[in-house]
TrEMBL record:
Domain (KY-like immunoglobulin-like): residue spans on this chain: 233-359, 376-483
Region (Disordered): 1-22
Protein name per its UniProtKB record: KY-like immunoglobulin-like domain-containing protein
InterPro entries for the chain: Ig-like_KY, Transglut-like_Superfamily_Mod
Coiled-coil stretches noted in the UniProt entry, renumbered to this chain: none
């Protein structure tokens, strides 16, 4: 066991493995039962209690589990024992119930009696009164404690107060729920102090450091137990991620921030799709911070666009009124048992111009997803949620038919009846019945929702149709598309030039690094993917360095110079984005930036250019070469 410099306890460093590697609840049943059933008389002295709890246990994980379970199972002392010594487990429980002893101090004492190294940690905690995105100064006032215990050859984190108690139902009265899963709510929470409850929550037992850092920020950086420590600014800025976010291995795509600012009256968040799960949302308005109530005629239903595309799902919020909002993302394996996943604060200074609700806001959202395939269809021509159309031109969407189904299509608009729009849709079987083509020719500009429903061929009842896919059709980008494409292509070209002109010595310096940081490896993985290397190859750092050492026409710089947006594989771009988007920056890399930031900037600009072209290409004049320097530079001042 490596010791710290003072020689009194093990060296403080990140644990060698994760909670799941050392703790299996199913293997602790016997330990838990024995701790819960501990006779009262064993708690009269610490030595006697520890001896009872730990006798026969084979390792220190079992020992700390026994102590933890005993504390969590014996919180309800209904009798006062006047003769109990304060230096006994019974006496300590009585002190704790009177507020004279913390869960933390009690647990540290138990561990030390069992010869388990245990340290109390102080710091900032996102406890009951915390709201996502709150000001740094206010957050710093939330001081709390937790512990680190040394078991299984590493320091492990436990939060006794959260593991053994909670406050249920607390609300500060500042938030008004305005929309939930496409339905208007318009209900303000009443202020309620909450109800203190005792329970046993295993989520705060041996919690992995990379998870607890989202909620607890220690005063001493070493107790983060992370290879790459967080700053307080990052701790304050991240989204509020609930237990399900970690248990379901969710991943936020794009800027990893819980403080979002609207652009053109909109905010968008995106997460990696999780097969087998359903998702929903709740949108809240902060009356206090916004400085005013929403007017009764401001019904914010159908202002959140829920969409799935390219292995992601997300929510685009349109703001009809300025103010401070909170978006709560929920999910679960069943639609009737959603849990909170994550939350974001959204600030809108200027509402969206001509902000109108969506034509519909379906429960399954917009864009092809797992429900589409379960309903017998697979999208072939359009895999995105939003389809851009040109005025007076038909838009054809093609599906592969996976099983015998009847297909029903409907078109919706805010001002034109669905019955009237039915004549704008034509659906035809194709490829000997293996495909179906749906062509839409809308009568005027604006937004439309195309709803696609299916039923099995042997279910002929009209109510047997189920919604399996939806598209939002719009031509809002028709006039601005060329300029948007030029801007993104120009940014990509400039980032490419910075890579090409970079001093090769900077790349050579990377090859000298034997053990890279996660950030460096991620960025170089994404870069090599973009220039044609396969994923399994780039996971090996030694192989990455070999590629970086290549000179001449096959060097990384030469291959970046030859990169073309038009021929870039969409799936590869998505994969590159998912690997290193947490390092993306809104600012351009400077000419003197280090190699990793220069490469990251190029990956970001190239991926965004590909996404923009894929979305808006049909608005460009036929035959446009959007990678031609003349096209890119034509509007440059």
């Amino acid at each position: 066991m490596a010791m710290s410099s003072n020689g009194n306890m093990p060296e403080i460093r990140p644990p060698p493995n994760r909670k799941k590697d050392i703790f299996d609840p199913q293997k602790m049943v016997r330990v838990d039962e024995r701790a819960r059933e501990a006779p009262f008389e064993t708690a009269t002295t610490f030595p006697e209690l520890v001896k009872y709890l730990t006798t026969g246990l084979v390792n220190d994980v079992e020992k700390v589990r026994a102590l933890f379970m005993w504390m969590g199972s014996h919180q309800h002392l209904s009798t006062v024992y006047w003769d109990a010594s304060e230096d006994s487990p019974i006496g300590c429980w009585q002190l704790q119930s009177m507020g004279r002893l913390s869960y933390n101090d009690f647990f540290v004492r138990l561990c030390k009696e069992a010869n388990l190294p245990c340290v109390a940690i102080q710091g900032v905690v996102k406890a009951m009164h915390y709201a996502v995105g709150m000001r740094d100064e206010e957050l710093k006032s939330f001081q709390g404690e937790w512990v680190a215990v040394y078991v299984a050859k590493g320091w492990r984190l436990i939060v006794p107060i959260w593991a053994f108690s909670a406050v249920a139902g607390f609300t500060d009265g500042n938030w008004m729920e305005v929309e939930r899963d496409g339905e208007a709510v318009f209900q303000r929470d009443e202020s309620f102090p909450g109800q203190h409850i005792t329970h046993l929550n295993d989520d705060y037992f041996l919690t992995d450091p990379n998870r607890l850092i989202f909620e607890c920020f220690p005063e001493k950086q070493e107790w983060q137990l992370l290879k790459e420590p967080w700053s307080f600014e990052k701790f304050a800025d991240v989204p509020l991620c609930h237990i399900q976010y970690f248990e379901q291995d969710m991943s936020i795509i794009g800027k990893f921030s819980g403080r979002l600012k609207s652009e053109n009256g909109k905010c968008e968040i995106k997460l990696k799709e999780k097969p087998g799960m359903f998702f929903g949302y709740r949108l809240f308005y902060n009356v206090t911070e916004s400085g005013k109530e929403l007017s009764n005629d401001t019904k914010l239903d159908r202002y959140v666009l829920y969409k799935t595309e390219s292995g992601t799902f997300g929510f685009e919020v349109r703001f009809a009124a300025a103010g401070v909002y909170k978006l709560q993302v929920n999910g679960g394996v069943r639609r009737d048992t959603f849990d909170m996943i994550c939350e974001f604060r959204m600030t809108c200074d200027e509402p969206m111009k001509d902000c109108r609700p969506l034509p519909i806001n379906p429960l399954i959202g917009f864009g092809p997803n797992s429900t589409t395939k379960e309903g017998g269809l697979k999208a072939e021509s359009h895999t995105q949620a939003v389809v851009n159309f040109r005025k007076e031109e038909g838009t054809t969407i093609t599906f592969k038919i996976l099983k015998p189904v009847n297909v029903q299509t409907r078109l919706f608009h805010n001002e034109i009846s669905s019955n009237e729009l039915q004549k704008c849709i034509d659906q035809q079987p194709w490829a000997n019945g293996k495909q179906i083509r749906i062509t839409v020719l809308v009568p005027q500009s604006g937004e439309y929702a195309l709803q696609i429903n299916t039923r099995d061929e042997d279910h002929l009842a009209s109510d047997a149709y189920e919604n399996v896919c939806n598209y939002l059709l719009t031509n809002d980008n028709e006039d601005t598309a060329p300029q948007k494409v030029k801007e993104k292509m120009r940014a990509m070209r400039d980032a490419k030039q910075r890579v090409v002109q970079m001093d090769p010595k900077k790349i050579e310096a990377i090859t000298k690094i034997k053990i890279p940081s996660k950030k460096l490896h991620d960025i170089m993985m994404a870069t090599l993917l973009m220039i044609g290397k396969w994923e399994g190859f780039v996971k090996d750092w030694a192989k990455v360095c070999k590629v970086l050492e290549i000179k001449g026409n096959q060097s990384v710089q030469s291959r970046v110079r030859r990169f073309r947006v038009k021929t870039a594989d969409t799936d590869v771009c998505f994969k590159a984005r998912s690997i290193c988007e947490n390092y993306f920056d809104d600012e351009n890399a400077s000419d003197d930036a280090d190699a990793q930031d220069t490469f990251c900037d190029w990956v970001q600009k190239a991926v965004v250019a590909k996404e923009t072209v894929s979305e808006l290409e049909n608005y460009l004049p036929p035959g446009t070469d959007y990678e031609d320097d003349v096209f890119i530079s034509s509007d440059e001042a």
